[in-house]
Amino acid sequence: MPTVEQLKTLFILSFWATKIYLPVFLVRIDERTKNIVILAGEENKIIIYLDEKWRYL
């Protein structure tokens, strides 16, 4: 299960992605690291770490 901080960040980032018309194709939890991975648009990948910080790849 994701943490509360991860869920808040997921909601905010998903909102902003769809606001700029990027479709969110996949939201998945990495079983090894417990990070959330978001695939949006053609080449956009966002990782949300356990401490609520996130990274755009």
UniProtKB/TrEMBL annotation:
Keywords: Membrane, Transmembrane, Transmembrane helix. It comes from Nostoc punctiforme FACHB-252. It comes from the Bacteria. Residues 1-55 form the DUF6888 domain. This is DUF6888 domain-containing protein. The lineage of its organism: Bacteria, Bacillati, Cyanobacteriota, Cyanophyceae, Nostocales. The keyword Transmembrane helix applies. The keyword Transmembrane applies. It holds the Pfam family DUF6888.
